[in-house]
Write a structure and sequence with these properties.
The complex is a heterodimer of chains A (about 220) and B (about 190). Chain A has about 220 residues and is an alpha/beta fold. Chain A is built from eight helices and five strands. Chain A has a five-stranded mixed β-sheet with strand order 1-5-4-2-3, covered by helices on one side. In chain A, helix 8 links the parallel strand 4 (about 180-185) and strand 5 (about 205-215). The longest helix of chain A is centred in the C-terminal third of the chain and has 22 residues, at about 140-165. Chain B has a domain at about 70-180: Nucleotidyltransferase, domain 5 (2-Layer Sandwich), CATH 3.30.420. Chain B is an alpha/beta fold and about 190 residues long. Chain B starts with about 25 loop residues before the first helix and ends with a helix. Chain B has four helices and six strands. Chain B has a five-stranded mixed β-sheet, covered by helices on one side. The chains are: A alpha/beta (about 220), B alpha/beta (about 190). At the A-B interface, helix 1, strand 1, strand 4, helix 8 and strand 5 of A face helix 1, strand 1 and helix 3 of B. Strand 5 (about 205-215) of chain A pairs antiparallel with strand 1 (about 50-55) of chain B.
């Protein structure tokens, strides 16, 4: 009787192609990944179940933590905003300082201290205690000015583009007004947040974003 | 797994044979590592985008102060007061004569959520009676000075979950603050 032979096949697969693809993807993701910029004020945002991403561009972020306020603008309007602020607050900046300011990822100092902040190296700027927050009290409300000037710069930037015919009216409507996101620390006291929201509302900015983390379903 | 070790029998053989090396290298571990890194980079690039919650606030035009607020019947108006230490007090209707007296609640699924869902249903039913089926509960959120930002986001989150017709963030009146103090929540 003939025996039925179970043919023994090798269990090994050629993984060369798989390896190639894996490394191709890996190099792609490494190259597209951007290094996270160190923030001058790291905050722990509260969590929510609302799943909505912050728009990619045209968003300025106000970071609030320990009663200090920091401001981060999109890159394209930084220079214009500083020019406006310099005029408004009578602080002159040199060309190098403008270039340096364009590279600055968020800051939290008074107008008068901005010069000395720009003179520091990027590593020293994010050290604890160097930046003490932008004043936002009613006597010296610099945060109000920053937000207002940034919004006007954004408006001017897209006005120009719209007039040149580079963007459609629809796009102009969406991007023309600078979006504001409030990134508050979860433990921050409510009056501070309220004050920041009031500042935005004083200049008729009634819709803004609250930056939150993702909460699990079982909340 | 040990294809690379294709050595002979320890050199005891009689004939010196040239070793036949196996050209196949085991790639399993390498592929494993590569995929692990891919997953890592994929997740970090797409998940690092910050999440946000849009918050529309009522226009604060001083020339026409709160034109819509007066029209809302008190039966479907709910006020939430946030005190200290994550505690909430809520009532329905007017402060002087609430239709449901002030009740204490906690945050979360078993706390304010249950009350809110009940009140949203009630608001809808009442609006239907009025002949305005599109409308419903209107919630007024008032946080005290001792509340923190997390409380505010939590309550806004509850709004997103329970979906009342309208909600607004307002300022606390002196009477409400007294009520919080009396209830020991401030």
């Amino acid at each position: 009787m003939a025996k039925i032979k179970v043919s023994k096949k090798s269990t090994r697969i050629d993984m060369t192609a798989m390896c190639d693809v894996a490394f191709l993807l890996l190099s792609f993701f490494i190259m597209t990944a951007t290094a996270k910029q160190p923030e001058p004020k790291p905050v722990d945002t509260p969590q929510s179940t609302v799943i909505e991403k912050l728009p990619d561009e045209g968003v300025a972020t106000i970071t609030v933590g320990q009663k200090q306020v920091f401001f981060l603008m999109p890159k394209n309007i930084r220079r214009a905003t500083l020019e406006r602020m310099s005029e408004l607050r009578n602080v002159k900046f040199t060309e190098e300082e403008y270039t340096e300011f364009e590279k600055l990822e968020g800051f939290g100092v008074k107008m008068t201290e901005l010069k000395s902040l720009l003179a520091l190296s990027p590593g020293e700027r994010v050290k604890e205690g160097v930046q003490k927050g932008i004043p936002y009290d009613s006597i010296n409300n610099q945060l109000f000015d920053w937000v207002k000037q940034a919004r006007e710069s954004q408006r001017a930037f897209y006005d120009e583009k719209f007039q040149a015919g580079e963007i459609t009216a629809e796009e102009y409507g969406v991007k023309g007004d600078l979006q504001i996101a409030i990134k508050g620390d979860a433990k921050e006291e409510y009056p501070t947040i309220k004050r920041v929201m009031d500042i935005l509302q004083e200049q008729k900015k009634n819709k803004f974003y609250l930056v939150t983390g993702l909460r699990d379903e079982d909340f | 797994m040990a294809e690379l070790n294709t050595g002979g029998d320890g050199g005891k053989g009689k004939k010196v044979r040239s070793k036949k090396s196996n050209p196949g290298v085991d790639l399993t571990a390498m592929v494993d590592l590569a995929f692990l890194l891919i997953t890592f980079f994929m997740l970090t690039t797409t998940l690092s985008k910050p999440q946000a919650m849009p918050l529309p606030m009522p226009d604060r035009d001083k020339t026409n102060p709160e034109p819509t607020n007066t029209k809302i019947p008190e039966e479907r108006m709910m006020t939430i007061l946030i005190g200290s230490n994550n505690r909430i007090l809520w009532y329905m209707g007017k402060f002087e004569s609430p239709t449901i007296p002030p009740t204490e609640a906690a945050f979360g699924k078993n706390g304010i959520r249950k009350d809110l869902l009940k009140n949203v249903e009630m608001g809808k039913a009442y609006a239907k009676q009025e002949g305005k089926p599109q409308q419903g509960l209107v919630v007024n959120i008032k946080a005290s000075d001792k509340a923190n930002y997390r409380n505010l986001v939590d309550i806004l989150d509850e709004m997103a979950i329970t979906k009342p017709q309208l909600f607004a963030i307002g300022d606390m009146t002196a009477g409400e603050l007294d009520l919080l103090k009396q209830s020991g929540l401030y």
